[in-house]
Design goal:
Elements: H1 2-35, H2 46-59, H3 78-90, H4 98-122, H5 127-136, H6 152-166, H7 171-187, H8 193-204, H9 208-232, H10 236-240, H11 250-261, H12 264-278, H13 282-301, H14 313-331, H15 339-368, H16 371-387, E1 393-395, H17 398-401, H18 412-421, H19 427-434, E2 440-444, E3 449-450, E4 453-454, H20 458-467, E5 468-475, E6 478-483, H21 490-499, E7 502-503
Parallel strand pairs: 1-2
Antiparallel strand pairs: 2-6, 3-4, 5-6, 5-7
């Protein structure tokens, strides 16, 4: 009887874990299907990153003049812009986001493949690789980021590759591992986990010759390209450290950290760690170091108000193979949990993770994949893409600024952040607004905030409200404003009305 109860409890826990993973995989699939064909941004502010990647493709320089519009100049690493510029060099697609999104998707797929490879390399248990694959698809914060134009997944791909190469032997493997760790740093300067963990692990194992090869290659590939770019573009360092002085937001940082602490991957990795350390499995320590350092750096970097959950992705992916061992510990044939504990864990996983995830995915699919949902997303973008060229327009929405001939602000949130930090003065922009220099201004329907910082500098928002009046709305998210001293909407207003821009009260 006791054996039957244990078997039933174990089956319930395994089933709950599988359901969690399948709900995560469904969220990934639906999000990709919804977001990939979008004409506009997948998330704020993809168009800003793509604008600077396109600038690099056309000019050969990574960073624009910080004192001249459009504001601000790029703040990401050169490797990000170089990678995202590649599709544009091959072909000019009607939708410029498609090629870069495909690169991000491939980078994510590479990260998942490496977690599976690491699990199969480090564990003799066949199920570890399968669970690693399933768990990589259950990280609940990732689906919305898979197609976003950032350096997170390319950087994590090279970081995981460095860890995998460190498990091999010989100078060639150490050189390649160091090079991969250095390239990871190229995509994001907070990606120091591969270099740090590799060096500490080799030092602890007294492999001093391998350590020398690894550190030498890592230093060259991490610092060399940046020094080369800095010799041609001295503003590199000020761009990479745009967030300094830091505008802190501790409640937001705590909220993002709690999201990580609730992830099944993180909790299962904690379950596995005592087992791995007790058995002296030193090769696993490398992966544990890598994940722990990455999460610690991410938590520290997230103290600034511009940080988000993507700061933790590298660490969570690094812990995924360890979490697979955690699954085998709590739900394997030799699991030591009491039946009551197994049933309680299964219930919590289903009610708190799987069912809410499936419900959210169903809502996303219902809206995003329907004809009405597609039309609601594409309609406003197509309308403004047809109307704005040839007109002098100010947009405080990054995706709309991307459509204008001469964008002024392509990432207003960073301007508001810089204003808080005392590094950006909005007066030149406000003066142009007060002179009613622009035929129209396109804004969000309301001023939004992220982690205590407004999406648009408040004094710029107020200047628009004083000098311009709402004219029409191309969709529920955006409002087109025209000068208050203008009787009608002007030539642009007429074009917008002809295209179906919904009139607002005059």
């Amino acid at each position: 009887m006791d054996r039957g109860v244990r078997s039933a409890a174990r089956l319930a826990l395994v089933s709950a874990l599988i359901l969690v993973c399948l709900s995560g995989a469904a969220a990934f699939s639906v999000r990709i299907a919804v977001d990939f064909p979008k004409l506009g941004e997948v998330a704020y502010p993809d168009s800003y990153v793509l604008y600077d990647a396109d600038h690099y493709r056309q000019s050969g320089t990574f960073y624009r003049d910080a004192a001249a519009p459009p504001f601000p100049s790029g703040i990401y690493s050169p490797a990000v812009y170089a990678l995202l510029a590649l599709p544009g060099r091959v072909s000019d697609a009607a939708n410029p986001f498609l090629g870069p999104r495909l690169l991000m998707l491939l980078a994510f797929a590479g990260c998942v493949a490496l977690t599976v490879n690491l699990a199969s390399t480090l564990s003799r248990v066949r199920g570890a690789a399968v669970w690693s694959l399933l768990l990589a698809a259950s990280i609940s914060t990732m689906p919305a980021w898979v197609l976003q134009l950032r350096g997170d997944f390319p950087g994590a791909l090279f970081g995981l590759l460095a860890v995998r190469l460190l498990l091999a032997r010989g100078p060639a493997a150490m050189l390649m591992a160091g090079a991969a760790a250095g390239v990871s740093f190229q995509f994001k300067i907070t990606f120091v986990a591969a270099l740090s963990a590799g060096a500490l692990w080799l030092l602890a194992r007294r492999r001093f010759r391998d350590l020398a090869w690894f550190v030498a290659a890592g230093a060259v590939c991490a610092v060399g390209p940046l020094l080369y770019v800095a010799s041609r573009e001295p503003e590199l360092w000020s761009r990479l450290f745009y967030a300094y002085p830091i505008v802190r937001n501790l409640p937001g940082a705590a909220h993002l950290l709690m999201e990580v602490l609730r992830e099944p991957v993180f909790l299962l990795a904690l379950v596995a760690l005592p087992f791995l350390f007790r058995r002296g499995r030193s090769r696993w320590w490398l992966l544990a170091l890598y994940g722990a350092i990455s999460l610690a750096v991410g938590a520290t970097a997230n103290l600034q108000a511009g940080g988000n959950s993507n700061y933790f992705f590298e660490g969570l992916l690094g812990l995924t193979p360890i979490a697979a061992i955690g699954v085998l510990r709590v739900a394997g044939r030799r699991q030591h949990l009491q039946p009551a504990a197994s049933l309680l864990a299964a219930g919590l996983l289903v009610s708190a993770v799987a069912l809410p995830g499936l419900a959210a995915t169903a809502l996303t699919a219902r809206h995003g994949l329907s004809a009405a949902g597609r039309s609601a997303e594409r309609g406003p973008v197509e309308m403004l893409r047809d109307a704005l060229p040839g007109h002098h327009v100010l947009a405080t929405v990054p995706g709309v600024a991307f459509l204008t001939d001469d964008p002024i602000m392509i990432e207003p949130y960073l301007l508001a952040y810089g204003q808080r930090a005392g590094t950006f003065d909005t007066q030149p922009i406000r003066e142009r607004i007060q002179r009613r220099e622009f035929e129209a201004v396109v804004t969000d329907a309301a001023l939004d905030y992220y982690r205590g910082v407004p999406r648009v500098p408040p004094d710029v928002w107020e200047a628009i409200a004083v000098a311009y009046r709402p004219f029409c709305s191309p969709g529920p998210r955006w409002v087109v404003h025209v000068p208050r001293d203008q009787a009608g909407g002007g030539a642009l207003g007429a074009e917008l009305e002809a295209l179906g821009c919904a009139p607002l009260s005059r």
